[in-house]
DNA sequence: GCGACAG
DNA sequence: ATCTTGTCGC
């Protein structure tokens, strides 16, 4: 039963959603991580074609081993459409439902989407971070806003992402000569730490393990290959 | 008005 | 996001 706070309704119009973002953006904190990282979580959602059924999941991995220690998978419905800049209002409700069932609260959460690399500096990673009051990192596969120079070809190189003259994130090469990912601060973390953590959780694929594993698991859930629930669910047997 | 636009 | 086989390159 991980903690989270309700700061607003999800049953809002796009215009109201924008107002909420402009209000909550002031709650985002940029600060160094406190203490060592013991657990890192990955969160993602999956959909069927033109369906409003959402399959959401939060996976908790031990750091730096990246072995799964907890998971929460839920199936719900959504009606808010996908609108660039308002992704959080479509995916966060389901992610929060999965989050509240987690037993092991992670020290940092990696989310498939932008953090402050957003028009109003309040992408889904920042929004989710503020709601669960945990450090979060935004790791997106494509660009939403900003300009950047192509980073050098080898893994580990990055170039800053700028928007309106300010640095909002980086284009980070996680694999040699492979399309970079876009990393930005979500909440309660620094950009440097975010970059380091992403690189430390990359295991041979472009996408770092937390979000990659979360993506694989919610897709398996959508295809009916696995059932919703928690790692500590009686129906699923014991932990180890 | 035109083009861009996380998942 | 999702629909999908083969194909090019390290």
Automatic annotation (TrEMBL):
Gene Ontology CC, one term: cytoplasm
Q: What is its EC number?
A: 3.1.21.7
Q: Which Gene3D superfamilies match?
A: archaeoglobus fulgidus dsm 4304 superfamily
Would you kindly state one Gene Ontology biological process term found in this protein's UniProt entry? Answer: DNA repair
Q: Where is this site: Interaction with target DNA?
A: 82
Q: Which CDD domains match?
A: Endonuclease_V (cd06559)
Where is the protein found, in the record's own terms? Cytoplasm
Q: Which reaction does it catalyse?
A: Endonucleolytic cleavage at apurinic or apyrimidinic sites to products with a 5'-phosphate
* Signal peptide limits: none
Please provide the record's keywords in A-Z order: Cytoplasm, DNA damage, DNA repair, Endonuclease, Hydrolase, Magnesium, Metal-binding, Nuclease
Q: Does the keyword GTP-binding apply?
A: no
Q: What is its main location?
A: cytoplasm
Return the similarity comment.
Belongs to the endonuclease V family.
NCBIfam families from the UniProt entry:
endonuc_V_Ttgales (NF041102), PRK11617.1 (NF008629)
**Per its record, how is this protein called by name?**
Endonuclease V
Q: Native species of this protein?
A: Candidatus Thermokryptus mobilis
């Amino acid at each position: 039963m991980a903690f989270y706070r309700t700061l607003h309704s999800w049953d809002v119009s796009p215009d109201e959603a924008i107002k909420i973002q402009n209000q909550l953006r002031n709650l985002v904190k940029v600060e160094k991580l406190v203490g060592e990282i013991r657990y890192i979580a990955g969160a993602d959602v999956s959909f069927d074609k033109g369906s409003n059924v959402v399959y959401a999941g939060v996976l908790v991995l031990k750091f730096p081993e990246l072995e799964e220690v907890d998971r929460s998978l839920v199936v719900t419905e959504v009606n808010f459409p996908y609108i660039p800049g308002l992704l959080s209002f479509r995916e966060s409700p389901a992610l929060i439902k999965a989050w509240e069932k987690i037993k092991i609260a992670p020290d940092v959460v990696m989310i498939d989407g932008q953090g402050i690399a957003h028009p109003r500096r309040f992408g889904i990673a920042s929004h989710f971070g503020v709601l669960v009051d945990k450090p979060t990192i935004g790791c997106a596969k494509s660009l939403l806003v900003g300009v950047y120079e192509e980073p050098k070809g080898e893994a580990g190189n990055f170039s800053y992402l700028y928007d309106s003259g300010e640095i909002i994130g980086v284009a980070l090469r996680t694999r040699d000569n492979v399309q970079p990912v876009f990393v930005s601060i979500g909440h309660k973390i620094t950009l440097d730490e975010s970059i380091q953590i992403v690189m430390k959780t990359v295991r041979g694929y472009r996408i770092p393990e937390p979000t990659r594993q979360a993506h694989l698991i919610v897709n398996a859930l959508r295809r009916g290959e696995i059932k919703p629930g928690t790692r500590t669910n009686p129906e699923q047997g014991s932990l180890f």
